[in-house]
Fold these 4 entries.
Entry 1:
Amino acid sequence: MTEVNLFLLVGIISVVSAVMMLLSENAVHSALFLILIMVCIAFLFLMLNAPFLAMVQITVYAGAIMVLFLFVIMLLGAEKLGTRSTRLRWITPVAVFLSILFLITAGVAIGQGQVNLSAAPSAEPILRVAHFAPEVGNVDVYANGELIAASVEYRDSTDFVTLPPGEYNLALFNAGTQDALTASTVTLDSGFTGTAIAYGTDAVPLVVLESEDLSTVPERSGRVTVFNGFSGVPAISLVDFGSDYDLEDTQTIIAEIPQDTLSEPIIVKETTDLRSWALVEAGNVDNVLFRLSDPESYEIERDNSKFLIVSTEPQLDGTLRAQTVALDASTSASFGGPLAMGQALFTRYLLPMQMVALLLLVAMIGAIVLTHKPKEVSSIERRVLGRRKVSRPLTSVLSAQTGHDVYVPDTNGASEEALPEAVGEEEKV
Amino acid sequence: MVGTEAYVVLSMVLFILGAMGVLLRRNAILVFMSVELMLNAANLALVAFARQWGASDGHLFVFFVITVAAAEVAVGLALIVAIFRTKKSIDIDELHQMEG
């Protein structure tokens, strides 16, 4: 309710300012009202979840552009100019009538729901394939007969591949060969982000498709998801043993992840120390399966999603050991923030941005050229100035007065040649 | 949450007021400021639809509009200064002859 009131307040202020801008006689007052409108619009940008644009609006519009306007108004002394009545008197009622007509038309259109307010079309699905089957060598991954990743090593994953939505026959082949290990049909809906995990200790790996949440996380935090592919125990838990591995302050982070299932994603602050975290058998904290002790692999990074895959690795003595690998992925940048804007500007919109930069450069040069005032010198003035500045040689003045040619020996060259010698002699002395 | 329609209506009203300023005022600087108001109204609608669609492309467009508006103002005000120097007036009714 407060947001609606705030919107009404700011909206009314901006509309009243716009009317006042139209009606005020003094151009300086109009400019100040326009600044008020700009600030109101920046406020509305904030309410629309666009903080970066709100700042740009304030600095560029209210700051730079409007100061330029005020500067030019005061430079030209144009506060009161152009306020007399126009010769085209009929234009005022026509403009008002057409404006009201447009408002009614558009208002009716919006009232009838003609504005397209449908949700955005979701993005194409992206998929990566992770290989966690210890009995299988490197694999090639095919989707509908097309190779999407070649020679994926054990405990590794492919990069994310963007595929059109639809059904896919996802097949794993031994690397470089034509013998299919396993094939399964997966359905990729639009907007899906996830991982196809091949795991299991059999010669034929199991393949499951698990979706991963890559949406925006709260600031300075990351997301952790655990997939339990360990077949040694019925269920596992993710626990934090605390600083001194005291059983008393052991905290359960994610409880009871059954076999072959994915945990709920959790949000973790980026400064969290994961060295005291471990995967244990559910209900039996003493049976530690895997410690997340390697800070290189398990450090939480901001705006990053960690997908922990727990897989089974048979030992030589027949026992099963849990093996954990973290797959990293960036979460999408927060909407409307400077990071998201920067990412878009330097990837999809790189060319337009360069063009706009060029445009600004051209505008700068154009403004300088337009306001450049060439020195206004008339042709007569130039002749007079020329006569004053360039003195005629004395010989020509004398010859004009006497009527005879006057010969003066040219001493300039000689003296110039003599000078260095003189200097040289002085130095010798 | 305020609906997108409310923002669209507000931006429409501001746009109309800007258009009326362009039509009715005779001071070239005021006409120019009204054009800026129209650009701002369009920006508001773009940002409102960007939130509606959850796509940041609208924000990028607003960013470009602001940049182009800055360039436009620099050149436009330089033109006004140049015109004022020759005609000693910035009344747009007196500038219709298009002569130096």
Entry 2:
Amino acid sequence: MEPATRLDNNHELTAQDFPYIIRWRDDRCKRCGRCTAVCPMFAIEPSVVVKRQIKSIGLSPEPKSERSVETVVRQTSDIQKFCTGCATCNLVCPNDAIEPEYNPQHKFLFHKNEGGHPYRRGGRRNDPETSTLDRLKFTRISMLTDPALDAGRHEFRIRTYLGRILPAEELPLIEDNGKLILNKSAGKFVPPVREIYPVMIGSMSVGALSPTMWEGLAMGITYLNEVEKMPVVMCSGEGGIPRRLLKSRFIKYFIPQIASGYFGWDEIVRAIPEMVEDPCAIEIKYGQGAKPGDGGLLMAHKVLKLISEIRGVPQGVDLPSPPTHQTKYSIEEAVAKMIQSMSMAWGFRVPVYPKISGSRTAKSVLNNLVRNPYAAALSIDGEDGGTGAAYNVSMDKMGHPLASNLRECYLDLVKSGKQNEIPLIAAGGVGRKGNLAANSAALFMLGASAISIGKYIMQAAAACLGDEHNRCNVCNIGKCPRGITTQDPKLYRRLDPDKVAERVVEVYKSLDIELKKIFAPMGRSTELPIGMSDALSADDRAVAERLQISYAC
Amino acid sequence: MCRLCAITSNEFFSPLDNILALETMKEGHDGSGMGLILKNLGGEFESLKDFPILSGICSKDGLHKMDVFFNKSGFKLKYTWTPKIKPVKGIESRDYYFARVYDYPDEYKDKSSDEKENLLLKTRLYLRAMGEKDESIIVFSFFPDIITLKEVGDPLQLCEFFGLDNSQLKAKIIFAQGRQNTNYAINLYACHPFFIQGFGSMTNGENTAFVPIREFLISRGFPGYIGYNSDSEVFAHILHYTCKSLGFPLTYYKDVITPLKTSEIEKREDKEAAEFLKISLRPLCIDGPNCVIGFMPDGTCFMVQDAKKLRPGVVGGIKGRVGMMSEECGLESAVSSRDRTKDVFPMKYDMVIVTPGAEEVKIWNQLQGWTTITN
């Protein structure tokens, strides 16, 4: 008979309350201990159990009870040590004896607020449903009335512009003997414009990312530019850029970001006189799709020596960026002062643009930017954008879906005839289901001039384990099992930056082919089909109506 | 594929020449409509060169509404031409086809040509809006020395229907287009050639970049950039926008619709301009397949193609008479006495320009500049 105390478990959670349940197979396990050693959450632990077995050895039945002590692997019922489903245990197990299984009935969010601390995590919105972008199809196919192009044979120009584009009426040109020449005496300011690959790597900071991951991405895009001649650019995220890179000629492939904490900008500003090339652009972060209206946060355990040096802060302290730029009290201030002072820092040779989170107020921001001749673009980060650390409630419930937000902004620009003057950069959840090329192409056709990706490249280039079932998502605590979002050398040494760079190149080369496979049958090749909304259909009437595209079923 | 036939000459000729050339290019059903634009008019119009001609079709009701409007507007009717309609099986006749010559309102007599042109455009758009809903008034052009005729049907039958074979209607530049059979929803406003303030064009092929171009043109805020019942109308409006609104030389039309690669632009003498246009007019870039034939207010005509899909458009002729056709056989019909070896098939970088009176045929190449001049 079991002792009475065994029944007094009311303070404990059952396995069914957890989002992932560990399936461990006694018969396969050789008790090597690798799984328990590697688990970032300590969700599994070696344990001993007493087993009572009935055995009968002789010819006639003579059942005997035997007790033995055995080692097992057990899932804890401590909510702080919940299994995130990362499956690193499975990765290291030599015998396939262990794996986590998703539990759709879990009650995790009812309990993950111990100590009065709401659940915080990394990753992005936990919604495994099909996104709007994945409900769009390309239905305008060229066939007999206009022949399709050949994706493999024809020349395609998959490029876009980053920077404020002057309307043709304002170009400083004069006619001279049948030719248009530059009218230098007009004294007209022509804003800088960069020709870039239309899918860029979005802002992920040194700090949020491990040194190996950031280095891998940086090497990847440099290779793409230098060898493959694909002008892919990458935004630094808030937190500065390594000094050696700032002073190298490769800085032209990077977009330093300035955000409300201004982390790393001491170093950047000091490096300006020694910079041999201008950066591609400057991004001013006003908002982030994953946590709109919320500031950035790099938690203390990620602020190690390298990070403290780049950011110019002491080690081991939390680095919160405020929700807003504290020195600015209005949008006019923000636009006028921030954009112009950043432009001025590089002699007006570098495009400067703001990034905001998707919001119903995005159009107001855009209207303001349109009237500022120095605003180079607007980046809109939709609700499916990722982050290294945020409150779960912000990630899951705050923000605006990207598709309609972007479309509305584009159509607003069309109304005022400025659709080619201020490029819209779409970000947040692009390629969430792996369809990077299709999602990007759909966004171009809805009006985006460029796309920014973050989570996708972490998943594709470094096998980030996170997904929309809240798998892994421990980027915030610096325990990334892949070594992508950690500053712990034991973890980030798992990640080979060369391999990351190789994968970045592979991803972009295959993306390029897939984009051609989309554009070619639609007969487009010379320019990016920005705003070619007649090519798109949605499988849902309400979506089609909202995006002002056709409905097809 | 739509059939296109443009002839430019230093002598007056009949539109029958164009229609016969269209006929030689006919393949299969071609009854979706025909459009004709005549410029530099002869006959009775020769002495009325400075007065605007309103071309269109209206119902009896529409005619009444139009007369009431013109009585109030100050325009004075000077001359009316109407075709002698001959009933032809399969062509549904409308009430009243006309080309009416008006004198400007008194207060406009001394105004600049720009002001006069804007008045004409505004008037045409007003009339169009007035009759668009019930199709009581359809107006194609309102401009000096220009007549436009359009109707649904086979071009040869339409020629008979309008009595063009026996008409005195003649001009020195005539553009004709026969619409192909994929255009099933027939709207006369979708019928080429298109005309706006002295600029005209017709195109074959499908314009895959139509929607962004249309949005860009509409959003320029210029009142004439409306319609777009056909995806080819944008070519006429891009021409007007490039050469009139922006005031750029004609050769830049090619750079606008088919911009060069950056590496190619580097080699251009005017590289700054070419790069600026490529960036600032990015939404006007086409991908074809399109063969565009157009004319300018001064009577210069041209042919350009998209940069990839290239249709068999051809330009050829003799000094004083040059044809621009969608296919070679049309040219055989229009200018049979020419030296065929001098026929020009414009390629991806080329713009073939025929000077007024068909004096010269010049090829402007985006990379090389002027390459060939033939007389």
Entry 3:
Amino acid sequence: MVGVLRRSIVRAYSSQTSPIISSSLLLSRNPIITADLNPFEAQYYKYQSELWRRLMWTFPKWFYFREGTLAEQRFRQLNKDPVSYNPDIEYPQGKPEIRHRRDRRFKQVINLPKTYKQVGEEGHEEESLTKSHDDLARQIIPNSRVTKADESNDLTSLERKLSRTLYLVINQNNNWVLPNFVESSTEEIKALHTLAEDGLYKIGGEKINYFNVSNTPCHLRINEVENKKEFIIKSHILSGEFIPQDESLQYLWLTKEELKGKLDPQYYYEISHLFSDV
Amino acid sequence: MSVSRTFTRAFSNSSSLSRAGYSTVKPVHHLVKIEKAALKPNYQSLLVPKDDILAVGYKPTEIDQDRLLDHYHNTIQSDLMLHFYKHDAQKISGNKKRSWGEDSPYKMYRPQKKPVGTTRQTRDINPINFKNIPQLESVVVQIFNKHALEDSYLNISSRLLLSQITNVKAKQIYAKANILPWKMRAGKPCGAKVELTGVDMSQFITTLSELVLPRIRTFKGIKLSSGDRSGNITFGLDPEDVKNFPEIEAFQELFPNLTGLHITFKTTARTDDQARTLLSSVGFPFYKA
């Protein structure tokens, strides 16, 4: 009861001076690659896709490789016919069920002639040197899901944790917070999203291409300590880089879990629902 | 972008239910016609939807991570809700059927008056909240092949084309009307169509927006005027553009009479404006003609 009373007294006191209106920026970098799967999900998808391949229609070889052509000859060399069924033989592993040169008990695997040499094959080294990056016949090797920034644990890089959403936080008075901007003059009044935009360019340079989701703030945080109303504006960074204009400014790009460790617990509790779990 | 699930079909039709007359004099005859032969227990298994493991033609649907669906759930959905938020928004009522009034007992069971100015009712437009954020329901890809009207075997290649680029077996479509100047006769096969949902839809959208459309030199975007006023957007591709599909590109000699495509995005958005916002977030540009 005493606590409630004291609280109401504080409120009554603070409401005498009108609160400062400010806009905070929730700037996020969206996931670039697909989410990491847990082992169960990976196994589930593996099982389902194998089942799907098993039930798939037979490849219409007669349509893509006309009989008598060179291409068909090459195709036949790579794809040997399955073991055919002979009624005089006993098959302990199950009888082959051949339809259109496919054993219906299994999925159909089709080998196509390669246009490149694989690792370990003869001539692979020379080929990788001679073939240019634009050559369509080159082997396609997907980029690594783990980047250099991940390896060096560079928290200021935008190229870390590609499968997660990252959020920009800056250090203010030894507290990690979302960038918060207050109107400098009371003469002209700016819209909340322009206030956030100007503030972002001021602290992070103009080499940021960002997308403002809406002019409507997504959250209002009442900061009783500083007697401030913080309207949170949601936006995504599309390209460019956050380059601190003031050298003393510390900034980080963090995921939700990392934010929990960095931000003040009360502050995190108030805004944690704005962060994406992925 | 909902998970594909075809509903269990019943062997009956409901058209007679909507008829006005109903006999209550005994003996009451059944107004719902039932094909009794189809009720044989042997046929029950045919009614099970295809994504159920008990179905005869079972086809797994969750075969891999759906990149587009994940992006929608992680990013687009919450963004759209914030983007469409309007302070103090009210429901906009659609053009509905009107009552004749209640001052006379004769008006009680009389079918309602048509909506003002039209024959069809329009839907209400509700403010966007977490329950009705626009999402993609399905994509319909359709081909009209006029050459097939004369030689119906030419329709095979258009069905094959659709099956190739969408990974779903295409349905044959038939002419509905007799139009002499177009040599169209009712009942003649004249094209093909597929309705894509789930993984196939995501795959098709990704191919379209990342591979096919960027390679069309004259492509400016989807016309801003396209749409059926209730959140479904349609646009077309020329035969030349269809060649950019990777499945067709390498095998052009196998598709001698290439035709254009009509692509319709069915969304749960109630207005075209919302549907366009959704589509542009998925990667389709729009332009003002």
Entry 4:
Amino acid sequence: MTLVQKDAPLDVVPPRRWGLAVAVGLLLIFSLAPILWQVLTSLKTNADIAAVPNVYFPRQLTLEHYIELFRRRPFLRYMLNSAFVASVSTLLCLLIGTPAAYALARLRLPGERFILAGVLIVTLFPYILLFLGLLELVRTFGLANTYLALIVPYTAMNLPLTILVMRSFFQQLPRDLEDSAKIDGYNTGQMLWQILLPLTLPALVTTGILAFIAAWNEFIFALTFITRESMKTVPVAVAQLSGTAVFEIPYGALAAATVVGTLPLVILVLLFQRRIVQGLTAGAVKG
Amino acid sequence: MNTTLRDQERRTGWWLLTPALLLLLLVYAYPIARSFGLSLVTQNLGTELQPVFAGLDNYSRMALDGRFWQTIGNTVFFTVVSVILELLLGLGIALVLNQAFPSRGAVRTIALLPWALPTALIATTWTWIFNDQFGVWNDILLRLGLIQTGVNWLGDPNWAMWTVIAADVWKTTPFIAILLLAGLQSIPPDLYEAHALDGATRWQSFYRITLPLLLPQILIAGLFRFAQAFGVFDLVQVMTGGGPGGATETVSLYIYATIMRYLDFGYGAALVVVTFVILSLAVALATWGLARLRAVRAIGEPR
Amino acid sequence: MAAVLNLRSWLSRRRYLVGLAILCCTAVVLGNLVAWPQPPIRLTMLTSALDAEQGRSLVAAFEAKNPDIKIDVIEGPTGSNAIEDLYTTSFLLGGSPYDLVMMDVVWLPKFAAAGWLLDLTDQIPAADLADFMPADLDGGRYNGKLYRLPIRSDAQLLFYRQDWLEQAGIQPPETFDDLIAASQQLQQAGTTKWGYVWQGRQFEGLTAVFVDVLAGYGGFWVNPKTLEVGLDRPEAVEAVQFLRRTIEQGVSPPGVSNYQHEDARRLFQAGEAAFMHNWPYAYPLSNADDSPIKGKFAIKTMVHAPGLTSAACLGGWGLGVAKSTAHPEAALRVAQFYASPEAQRLSSLENGYLPTRRSLYSDSEIVAKYPYFPSMMGVVEKAVLRPPIAQYAQASDILQRYLSAAITNRMDAEAAMMAAATETRALLARN
């Protein structure tokens, strides 16, 4: 066992296994319980939701909250808005960030260190410091209630991470690669497109997923720059859903909204866990 | 010949870099610079939203603004407590995930999940869990006999901040755990073996090897989280809106209210500037500490 | 041959064109006569979820009479602060989706000062305004211009258990001391658990309670004309001390410092309190068939200090027209309809809201349903407006913070009011 798992630092002693099992169990409960509770809530009838003491497992399964969600609110529209804004900003971010990362990794530019330090520091500043200036820009350019009002900041907010992650990937590629390509008669464009791109595709996917998640989850810009119901993204729409129901506790609908709104991200994590971890560590530690 | 090739390379480099730099300047540098400028004017409902030069009035007003100091206090409390808890818990989770056990990959995936989910949505989940009447957390504590009557977690000023911190810890600990796990995996196992041969206990080897070698990762993760927690917005906004009685109002909520609710742009800009300066100082301090640590490490260890 | 053919086809084409023209003209004429169905103008407004629900019949009534206009009501959150923020954000951004603005009385100065509302002063003949209660109309004015038509009035009241007071032979209280004494007497007799419930949570409701009490002590908050701040005067400190005394002497439950309107109503309706400070919305609810206190309570204006008179805090809602709307005439028609006797009658009968028109307080059907309405007219006419200053939200938040600190004993009443006054002055000085 220990031979197979190479990153176990020490031999595993049987009594510790027991403690480990408890620890893993606790970790699973910690990570999953709130999500599962939300799933259960979303499937309960209003009577079960408001029952005191709590009803843990629904006495009767219902989809009414999900149906309600799509019938009373343009929830599909919110999902499409989120998906569109997140996808476009992710693509733009890769398109702009990857060349920059390549330049910073390969083309010894003067002041490179300052640029890199600047990019790194920028990731540390919360969006609340930016929204006043951006609000003015949005007003000046009449971007209120347009997708562009979100796409531009989202692209920018994911740029630092993209640059850092892609740069560390480029640095890992052997330098002779491009030289030998040039000797083989590729011009720069062909070299980038036919050799470098296929090699960096996994890194692009990694960064893309991180950027997509960040854009899907963003709140403060979406809250401020979009006021039209049909343009809202999922986080803002759900946050504003709370407290809209008058005669009943809205938590069934809210739970259903949370489940639907998080589903795309859960799927992403399930499919790409390894890549996400790689990207996060590359972005934070090696940067 | 060589110089022209270098020149050409540089020129290409700048072309590749320019769009990204322009966008970063537009979205990051411009708003901050603009806030510096706006902080010197009074532009609010009193001036019918027209800017009137006011010098440093906005800053002197801040000194007397009890609410500003309360929100700074709340923010520091939230940041320090949540980052410490997240580091401790994250380290624990990283240590667990670094052990060998069946289906470890799946457990890692699940442990990562909270980090990926939208904060605003998760905030509604926690609001529901901590509901005073129907919340499951009260129900569990009641069943266990730990409390006699339901606690109003989000409505009681003494509990609300802790409740919000709990939600933040759940949401962001995975991020720290992942960074620390990467650090753990980079520690060569033979270090432990050598240490164990010297007769050290597990605790000693954790204290002498793991912790010192992990320190850079701990500091980096701490720094990231510090900066993010200092600007916490969506979680608090959705869970309490800053209430009850301003008990959970952080500086970012105050900035947002000053600008979007009071339309007090000049003062809001001054708040942005002060927060920016505080954060910059903290980051500079942390970076300096990190650099020193690396320098010491470089001298202390021949590897 | 070809030329002839061409000519013929040209002729026929010409005839065709002429025919088309004639047809068009007829259509236009006919259209004007029989109201050719044009796509209706769509107007959007945002209201709280409760108002959206309760306002359905109003929308239906309007659309039935005005087939050329459709009203889209966007259902917002329940909290009125949240609605204010949604409107604010959308106007601030420009390109607002809302044509009509449903406003609480305290938002108006901000919205008007920011230039988001259409000036209605010259749009409405003075004769049309005669029926409205002056206090409600004033709530829609800023710097002498009218921006909002009042559609619903509100004034805070003291609810009391008539049955208990009669039983114990106590007169309904007139002064603050009466209120505390009566409460204590009923509590000691074991009639009630609590004496007086109010709203002590740090939110707008606390401001409103304080405004009532402050008026009863003869104090003022901000003088709208001179912008003088009266919060550090002895009357204001006395008002805070009264609120604090209710908790210290056990007349109000300790939890009152965290109460909102519904918390107070639940307690009162459950028969656990003798007096309640609340808005009239609680009346029909507490007097409903399933209420244990149906028919056992009465209302009066809030108590006051000896030798002074009381004044209720004025609330109420109205409709304004967004300056950015593409259809100002249509929007104005909606606002006028909502303010009309017909619409207010409907909303009074359906939901128990106080009308803003004098004539409706003597409407036989309304009075039959709500016998207390005629007495409300005097209350509303004497009601005090919270300071109609553009920075109201900020001023109220300052006041709430320090009131809450004083009520929960985190600050001395005098120190709290001094600080509140200082901050309020700093706020108003920045003009």
